[in-house]
Amino acid sequence: xxxxxxxxxxxxxxxxxxxxxxxxxxxxxxxxxxxxxxxxxxxxxxxxxxxxxxxxxxxxxxxxxxxxxxxxxxxxxxxxxxxxxxxxxxxxxxxxxxxxxxxxxxxxxxxxxxxxxxxxxxxxxxxxxxxxxxxxxxxxxxxxxxxxxxxxxxxxxxxxxxxxxxxxxxxxxxxxxxxxxxxxxxxxxxxxxxxxxxxxxxxxxxxxx
Length: 209
Prior knowledge:
The protein has helices spanning 31-40, 60-68, 80-85, 96-108, 125-128, 155-163, 178-186, and strands spanning 5-8, 14-18, 23-24, 50-54, 72-77, 110-112, 117-122, 136-141, 165-173, 189-193, 204-208. By secondary structure, it is an alpha/beta fold.
């Protein structure tokens, strides 16, 4: 299987290109910037909240979440290779302390201290989401694009995510595709435009009705 290629993005953070999907895991304008501005900040995270990170990847979205608040994160991921890559990733000095927690979580599939908790569940997210018993305040929704990975952008999958969210919970995603917005609405979400970071179109913020 072809090796993942490292790509330096516009904010000097590293992403990887997945050869199977022929896409990078983050926008080339700035991988870490995207995690904060498109995913974590719009969720208005507060201490004690529970966060679902769909497609954990390199852990940047979870990193942004734990930088902003002391939260409990459950990550869904189906590719062990991307978790193995995390150990070789370096981040900006101010993020290193929390990124070490991401590295431990990627290695052991769990991390916990007196402030945060991270658990990674391996497998097809369409199935693992059905095993969740807790209710989440926020969802960081970050699969490959609807064009490359349509199976994770369906109305059915969004409905199953909605089942494990608290009423009024927030889902954030980089996608502004019509299929994304239409399927979120059909699954019971109200949507609004999110920040434009690295693309001409905005991201999407969805509130569970």
